[in-house]
Specification:
The chain is an alpha/beta fold. It has 11 helices and 12 strands. The termini are far apart. It catalyses: shikimate + NADP(+) = 3-dehydroshikimate + NADPH + H(+).
Length: 282
C-alpha cells in the first residue's frame, strides 16, 4: 500500500523548465483547495538522468507533470498508461495507484478540447493541424474527441507528418497532408490548431494574411501563449474568426492534472487568475 507521512509532493520536469507556468497554476490550486501540506516544484531534468531519478521517488510523491523531452522516455518505466496516452504515444502526467504502481496519462488532449470549446465550438467535423510534431499528434486526438471526420495536417513535407497521421489512423479519422501554404484548407476547417514554434508560426500567419481576403469559417487555437496575441490570432480575429491561445490549453490540462493528483475538482478560475498575473509580469 502506498502511504506517506506528512506532506505530499509533485513537480514539473523537463529541459528547459525555468519558463514553466505549472508551479504557479498548481500552487494556486493547492492554496484554493486548502492543501497546505502539498508542494509543487520545477525540476530541470534531461533524458539521461530521468530513469534513475524516477526510480528513487518515495511514497510522498503524488504526481509528476512532464514536458519535453520526457513525454516518451517515461513510458517504459510505467505500469500502465491510459488509452489516450497510448494512442498519442506521449505521457505528460504520472500518478501512482494505492499499491504504488505508476500510471501515465495525457492531459494535453483534454486541454486542447477545452480551449476549442471556450470559443463556442462544440463539434469539428473538419479539422486542420498546422505542424506535425508531438503536439500535433495530441491535436489530432483532441479533434477526434470533437467529432472530427477528416483532418488536414499541414507540414513542410509529407515525410514529417508521420506522427499525427498515425494517430488519425488509430482513431479512424480520415487524414491527408497539405503544404503549409494551403490556405484554402485553413479557411474551410471547423477548427484550426497551430502547433508551430513562434518564428515558424509567424511566417505561416504572414503568408495567410497576404494571400487570403475572405473570413475564416471556424475557430483557431494557437498553442503559443506568450507573447499574446500571436500573429496568427491577430489576423484570425481581425478577419472575424474566434481565436484562443495556448494559455487556455495549458490551464485546462493543468486543472485535469490537479484532479488526477489530488482527487479533488480543480479550482479553474483561481488557477486562471494566478496564471494571468504571472504572465502579465513577464
Amino acid at each position: 500500500m502506498r502511504t506517506s507521512e506528512g506532506g505530499r509532493r509533485a513537480a514539473v520536469l523537463g529541459s528547459p523548465i525555468g519558463h514553466s507556468l505549472s508551479p504557479v497554476l498548481h500552487g494556486a490550486a493547492y492554496e484554493s483547495l486548502g492543501l497546505t501540506g502539498w508542494a509543487y516544484t520545477a525540476v530541470e531534468m534531461d533524458e539521461a538522468g530521468f530513469p534513475a531519478w524516477f526510480a528513487g521517488l518515495g511514497p510522498e510523491w503524488a504526481g509528476l507533470s512532464l514536458t519535453m523531452p520526457l513525454k516518451r522516455v517515461v513510458i517504459p518505466l510505467l505500469a500502465s498508461v491510459t488509452p489516450t496516452a497510448d494512442v498519442v504515444g506521449a505521457v505528460n502526467t504520472v500518478t501512482w495507484t494505492s499499491e504504488g504502481a505508476p500510471v501515465g496519462a495525457n492531459t494535453d488532449v483534454h486541454g486542447i478540447v477545452q480551449a476549442l470549446r471556450s470559443t463556442g465550438l462544440s463539434k469539428a467535423p473538419v479539422g486542420c493541424v498546422v505542424g506535425a510534431g508531438a503536439t500535433a499528434a495530441s491535436a489530432v486526438a483532441a479533434l477526434a474527441e470533437m467529432g472530427c471526420e477528416h483532418v488536414i495536417v499541414q507540414a513542410r513535407t509529407a515525410a514529417r507528418a508521420g506522427l499525427p497521421l498515425e494517430v488519425a489512423e488509430k482513431l479512424g479519422v480520415a487524414a491527408r497532408v497539405a503544404p503549409l501554404d494551403d490556405h484554402a484548407a485553413v479557411l474551410s476547417a471547423d477548427a484550426v490548431i497551430v502547433t508551430l514554434p513562434g518564428d515558424a508560426a509567424g511566417t505561416w500567419a504572414g503568408g495567410l494574411r497576404e494571400s487570403v481576403a475572405g473570413p475564416p469559417a471556424g475557430s483557431l487555437l494557437d498553442v503559443s501563449y506568450h507573447p499574446w496575441p500571436t500573429q496568427a490570432a491577430q489576423w484570425w480575429s481581425s478577419a472575424g474568426g474566434a481565436a484562443v491561445g495556448g494559455f487556455e490549453m495549458l490551464l485546462h490540462q493543468a486543472a485535469e492534472q490537479v484532479r488526477l493528483m489530488t482527487g479533488r475538482s480543480a479550482p479553474v478560475e483561481d488557477m486562471r487568475v494566478a496564471g494571468e498575473k504571472a504572465l502579465a509580469s513577464r
